[in-house]
Automatic annotation (TrEMBL):
Residue ranges of domain KOW in the record: 732-759, 903-930, 956-984, 1079-1104, 1170-1197
GO CC terms, sorted: chromatin; DSIF complex
Region named Disordered: 380-585, 1141-1167
Domain NusG-like N-terminal: 637-728
Record-annotated Enoyl reductase (ER) domain positions: 11-330
Protein name listed in UniProt: Transcription elongation factor SPT5
Entry-linked SMART domains: KOW (SM00739), NGN (SM00738), PKS_ER (SM00829)
Compartments it resides in: Nucleus
Polar residues compositional bias, start-end: 380-401
Similarity comment text for this entry: Belongs to the SPT5 family.
Gene Ontology biological-process annotations: mRNA processing; regulation of DNA-templated transcription elongation; regulation of transcription by RNA polymerase II; transcription elongation by RNA polymerase II
Organism, scientific name: Cryomyces minteri
SUPFAM superfamilies xrefs: GroES-like (SSF50129), NAD(P)-binding Rossmann-fold domains (SSF51735), Translation proteins SH3-like domain (SSF50104)
UniProt keyword annotations, A-Z: mRNA processing, Nucleus, Transcription
């Protein structure tokens, strides 16, 4: 291809020349191959060519050799398969290397050319986006501002003037010549213009302002900041866009001027700003396109004509000599601006396509070229000439192209004369199809209507001879009927063509008259062929003459039935009812179609759209083929912006936006947004608004409470929009399923679904209640979990910092009306029911001991519930034999989603319990995703391999297996032997404490070790250990490398042996007193006075804490901790100790026999066996006065008496005893 190549930095622009280089063979996946039609040089190109730009530095990216040029417009040749563009689209944009016949540009750097602009105008406005962004976003020009544009007649300056004027500002321009000043006044509409070549022009700028204080905004595109400061008022703004006026030499600005003016000087580079802030740049681009569409921005093109790449040096010289105003536009390939699908492909297109195919690095999308419009008879010849010496790879290319040429494009043989193939697949672009069909109709209406096939052959020969004619001559006749005119830049040439068109029309009329004569001679009509479905909007019928006599003669030759059969279905739809046989109605329809044919192309397209649009939409809805691009968002669709908001207020903000939308619906300033929504979950904290511009989102959200639109508003990428709008199917709840509660006092607790409302949002659940029955209101209540639950607890409000509501909540127990009556009898009421016990307590309903509560579904955890067997057992109903009756159906429904392939390992014995293979037993061989492959061990399939889904499998154990609990239970890591198997529940006897526990089979695995891990540890089960200076704990479980301990405050900890500083010796003679004052010793049986009233044997006594064990309980190995003041003694180690009181005789000094001179005289000694032993005695004084007992042992002055009443042995003085007759009870003296 041809291009302007800079192989070394030049000293003069005259050194530029056109070179032939290979087509680019290195594309990125997002690149688009474009055939250039127009280019527009700029001052950056002047600097690039001479190496004066900062990008030419060693750190820059522009170094020889490179192809010059940036701004271009052209037509897409090839693009990615899923691109927003397609071959044949007119686009404009910027890319290095534009001064060439073909340029490769990134998809994000190009835009479609609007119908109003054309390619030449679009090329002139490529750089206008820089000016728009500088005025609107950087300078923030308002209607009250006065804007000075330095270099106002240049390419950036003229657009800056138009944008500032559109914003309502007063615009002043500075130019370099009188000719440019006239252009600025006449073409742009700027009245106040000054020339910076005259001295003192800055003073004239100040005179242009209303208050003579200077301008508020300066847009500098040439590098005159010093001059701009002189024209600026205090606190003004200067936006610097370039330094082209300095020829690469940087301007030195005196900083004191900026200080004295209080000025803000801002530099703006559109490319760099777009890379750093793509979301803002995209919004600005939409605003720029809107102004172009509304006519507020128009291209200002320099009147000098430049054609071909050979004129690039001349255009750049004019630009360097400051002759150019507006933008100079060079027409490289102006012919490709003709209507698409009507121009024949040139040899260059085929060469590009062939070179692209030969490129080893070229991706497959380059073969999506589908704009060929050449005669198929010449394509093989063109392919051969484009590649004289094909290689082995070329043969594949040639075969691929030949396959492409052999495709049937839906036309008949007669259509070869006008070879204009339609795309082989259904096109997404309706306009392209309409244009293609309209041109086919125009070409057919011009053809002579012949009946003999010889005429077609003659015409084919004539057509082949005319292939060498110029492209414009071959297309002029076809385009004359379609109403399309060439966009010639030379107006005189357009006028000359008008006369030729009139001659062609006269010749066409004569040929039509000859055709009509031929039809009269033949005397009959040709049989109508089946019409193509794509021609339903196109008039291909023969014209009907207005003379009634000739029509009547034709009607006599054609039977009525045949006439009706030949009537096309589209004609029947257009005719009124009953008009099938009325020839006058047919002629009227033909006249209407002739009128449509004479209409302008745009009006005709609008009429067809209005008439058949609804029918086409209905047909598209019924069609099974939907283009993939229509199913996903594209760059043409509105964008979605994420606005930050306060967490939990998303729905409230959406409602506020909806209300604001309704309030402004019928006003002059309605909200320009499409939708607003929130997603919650992981996307909580954002409200998503769909709109065309970011400013529309700001208008809709700004000022709303809890919304923060000015803090990091995000633009959702197009590829993430489907994920944002994708809905996740919520799990359907059914009565009996298990869920968990997310918040409140019951957070984390298991609940069972009782009822589901029809809306699916309100759920009635059954919960095991957590009630303290007023203990927290009792000032003298005992401590629960080392926390005072009485008046001291009221000093710190619930939920305050430092309070742990979760740790202090009551344990789970079924509701007891007896406990409720003790404290809150006035809040307790019974409900009448014949089938169950129902109570209302503190405004909550309790049925059969369970709390029945209505909750919202978003307050419940419905997935990954994983209920343990201990939790499920609490919901089990009692069977008639007193055993538990679990609802396995509801449990299976809950566990179905949580059963994963990770629960099964190769070597596990499994059973298929669901499906067609139910009852098959085997050993797992491998696990892949959710499929387990097992080898059958029993039955008819023994030895065979079977694949089974995880959801229908369960592990198989038999009595005597040594297993280990691996999860899903509080007995995690416990090891034991299986003693019972029932359905999916396995009961095992633990090795650690010989307790029976029941778990699900999915939570078990065969153990490879025994449960004697505690034998290798220096700590034994139930040892008392010291954790810190004030905390002790009791060991409740010994694992291989860790210990579980129960601390004195009731919490369970997992510790390493190295983390325990000390082991406390077992104090066998430790003594404490209960709430009644009775002594408590090791191994005594105690009972908790309040709370759960647990009963157990004392293991350890530490200060005022007791560690006791109840073998009937499995939690924490049966160990619990209580305070001594909250227990009573049930039985001492040697017997019962009920109602035993304290021995107060040792505590009262007044009862001691001490005098002033010493102790009292001891009684006389007796020798031999003591006579009092075995006697029945009564106590005469002291706290035990009047009590009877039997003397068990004696010393010199005291005796041990076993009391009859309290069953307690006391020690008293002998002189305080009186012997009683065991029969009569009469007193007797033991000395006698």
């Amino acid at each position: 291809m041809k291009a302007i190549v800079v192989d070394h930095f030049l000293s003069s622009h005259n050194e530029l020349s056109v070179s032939s280089i290979p087509t680019t063979k290195h594309w990125s996946p997002s690149s688009v191959l474009i055939r250039v039609s127009h280019v527009s040089p700029q001052y950056v190109d002047l600097l690039y060519a001479r190496g004066l730009h900062q990008n030419n530095s060693p750190r820059g990216h522009v170094h020889p050799p490179f192809v010059l040029g940036y701004d271009f417009a052209g037509t897409v040749i090839s693009c990615p398969a899923f691109s927003a563009f397609k071959p044949g689209d007119d686009v404009y944009g910027s890319a290095l290397g534009a001064f060439a016949e073909v340029v490769v540009a990134d998809e994000m750097s190009i835009r479609r050319v609007s119908r109003e602009l054309g390619n030449a105008g679009a090329a002139a406005l490529v750089g206008g986006m820089t000016s728009y962004a500088a005025v609107v976003a950087i300078a923030e020009v308002r209607a009250s501002d006065t804007v000075l544009v330095i270099g106002a007649a240049g390419g950036l300056g003229v657009v800056a003037c138009q944008v500032a004027a559109a914003c309502g500002a007063h615009v002043i321009g500075v130019v370099g010549s009188a000719a440019k000043a006239n252009v600025l006044r006449q073409e742009v509409g700027v009245e106040d213009v000054a020339g910076y070549n005259k001295e003192g022009w800055e003073k004239r700028i100040i005179d242009f302002t209303e208050d003579d204080r200077g301008v508020g905004v300066v847009i500098d595109v040439v590098g005159k900041v010093e001059s701009g400061l002189r024209c600026l008022r205090y606190g003004g703004r200067i936006v610097v866009l370039g330094f082209a006026g300095r020829e690469g030499n940087m301007e030195a600005v005196k900083m004191n001027r900026i200080l004295l003016k209080g000025a803000s000087v801002i530099g703006y580079r559109y490319g760099e700003h777009g890379r750093r802030f793509p979301q803002e740049t995209a919004a600005l681009l939409d605003g720029f396109n809107e102004m172009v569409t509304n006519g507020k921005i128009k291209p200002i093109i320099y009147t000098e004509k430049y054609t071909g790449l050979e004129d690039v040096p001349r255009a750049m010289n004019d630009l360097a000599e400051r002759k150019v105003w507006g933008k100079a536009v060079i027409a490289i390939n102006p012919e490709i601006e003709k209507p698409k699908f009507a121009a024949a492909a040139t040899l260059l297109d085929l060469e590009l396509l062939t070179e692209s195919a030969h490129a080893s690095t070229a991706p497959d999308f380059l073969f999506s070229y589908n704009s060929l419009a050449t005669s198929p008879s010449r394509l093989p010849q063109l392919l051969k000439t484009s590649r004289p010496s094909p290689s082995s790879n070329d043969s594949n290319i040639t075969s691929a192209m030949s396959g492409f040429l052999n495709e049937d494009f839906g036309g008949s043989e007669s259509e070869d004369d006008d070879f204009n193939p339609a795309p082989a697949v259904e096109s997404d672009n309706e306009d392209a199809e309409d244009t293609n069909a309209t041109q086919r109709r125009a070409s057919k209406s011009e053809e002579p209507r012949r009946n003999a096939p010889e005429n077609d052959e003659d015409e084919d020969d004539a057509k082949a001879e005319a292939d060498d004619a110029p492209l414009e001559n071959k297309l002029s006749r076809r385009q004359s009927r379609g109403g399309d005119e060439e966009d010639n830049e030379d107006e005189a040439g357009a006028n000359d063509d008008a006369g030729a068109d009139e001659d062609d029309e006269e010749r066409d009329e004569e040929e039509e008259e000859d055709d009509e004569d031929e039809e009269e001679v033949t005397g009959h009509r040709r049989k109508r062929h089946k019409r193509d479905a794509r021609l339903q909007f196109i008039d291909v019928e023969a014209e009907v003459d207005d003379e009634d006599e000739e029509d009547a003669e034709d009607d006599e030759d054609v039977p009525g039935d045949q006439f009706i059969a030949d009537t096309h279905p589209d004609d029947l739809l257009d005719l009124p009812a009953g008009a099938e046989k009325d020839d006058q109605r047919h002629r009227e329809l033909d006249r209407q179609r002739e009128l449509l044919a004479s209409m302008d192309a745009e009006k005709q397209a609008a009429a067809f759209q209005e008439r058949y649009g609804q029918r086409k939409r209905a047909a598209a809805a019924d069609s099974a083929i939907v283009p993939q691009r229509l199913l996903l968002p594209s760059v043409e669709d509105p964008t979605i912006w994420g606005v930050r908001c306060k967490l939990g207020k998303e729905r409230e903000i959406v409602f506020a936006i909806m209300k604001r939308l309704e309030d402004r619906a019928n006003t002059r300033e309605p909200l320009a947004i499409s939708a607003a929504f929130e997603r919650g979950g992981s996307m909580a904290g954002y409200v998503y608004v769909e709109a065309r511009k970011q400013a529309d989102v700001m208008t809709a959200v700004d000022g709303l409470q809890f919304a923060y639109p000015r803090t990091n508003m995000i633009l959702v990428p197009i590829n993430e929009m489907p994920d944002l709008l994708r809905t996740k199917k919520s799990k359907s709840l059914e009565p009996g399923m298990y869920v968990r509660i997310k918040r409140g006092k019951y957070a984390g607790d298991l609940a069972q679904v009782e009822e589901v409302e029809t809306n699916g949002l309100d759920i009635t659940v059954k919960i095991v209640p957590r009630l303290d029955y007023g203990q927290s209101e009792d000032a003298n209540a005992p401590m629960i979990d080392n926390r005072v639950s009485g008046a001291l607890a009221k000093r710190k409000r619930q939920g305050a910092l430092g309070s742990n509501n979760f740790a202090s909540r009551p344990p789970q127990r079924l509701f007891s009306e007896i406990e409720a009556k003790k404290k809150h009898s006035k809040f307790l009421s019974a409900l009448s029911s014949l089938s169950s016990k129902q109570w209302t307590y503190l405004n909550d309903t309790y049925i059969d001991g369970f709390l029945i509560k209505d909750m919202k579904v978003n307050h419940l955890q419905t997935e990954d519930v994983n209920p343990t067997l201990e939790e499920v057992t609490k919901f089990a109903a009692g069977a008639e034999d007193g055993t538990e009756n679990l609802d396995l159906t509801a449990l299976a429904a809950t566990l179905k989603a949580s059963t994963a392939a990770a629960d099964f390992l190769p070597g596990d014995m499994v059973e298929i319990y669901d499906g067609e293979q139910r009852g098959v037993f085997g050993k797992a061989i491998s696990v892949h995703s959710d499929i387990v492959k097992l080898r059958v061990t029993e039955g008819e399939l023994k030895g065979q391999t079977v694949d089974a889904p995880v959801k229908g499998l369960r592990k198989l154990f038999k009595e005597g297996d040594h297993v280990k609990i691996i999860g899903g239970s509080k007995y995690f890591d416990e090891v034991g032997m299986v003693v019972k198997v029932r359905d999916d529940r396995v009961t095992l006897l633990t090795d650690s404490n010989q307790a029976e526990i029941t778990v699900f089979s999915k939570d078990l695995r065969e153990a490879t070790d025994s449960g004697g891990a505690m034998g290798v540890s220096k700590y034994d089960l139930f040892d008392l250990v010291q954790l810190d200076a004030s905390t002790v704990a009791c060991v409740i479980k010994v694992d291989r490398g860790s210990l579980r301990v129960l601390t004195q405050d009731g919490s369970v900890r997992m510790l390493l042996p190295s983390n325990i500083p000390n082991k406390l010796e077992h104090r066998r003679f430790a003594v404490a007193t209960d709430r009644d004052g009775s002594e408590i010793r090791i191994d005594d049986t105690i009972k908790e006075y309040g709370g759960e009233q647990k009963q157990g044997r004392v293991l350890h006594i530490h200060r005022n804490f007791l560690f006791a064990q109840n073998r009937q309980q499995t939690e924490n190995a049966g160990v619990f901790v209580v305070r001594t003041s909250n227990v009573t003694t049930v039985a001492a180690k040697g017997g019962t100790a009920a109602n035993a009181g304290p021995d107060l005789s040792k505590m009262n000094p007044a009862l001691q026999r001490n005098g002033a001179n010493g102790t009292a005289m001891a009684p006389p000694k007796s020798f031999g066996r003591e006579k009092m032993i075995g006697k029945t005695v009564t106590v005469k004084k002291g706290p035990h006065k009047g009590l009877l007992g039997i003397v068990k042992d004696t010393t010199d002055d005291s005796a041990r008496v076993e009391l009859h009443t309290k069953n307690k042995t006391i020690t008293v003085k002998k002189d305080t005893l009186a012997i009683k007759d065991p029969i009569t009870g009469a007193p007797a003296d033991f000395r006698g």
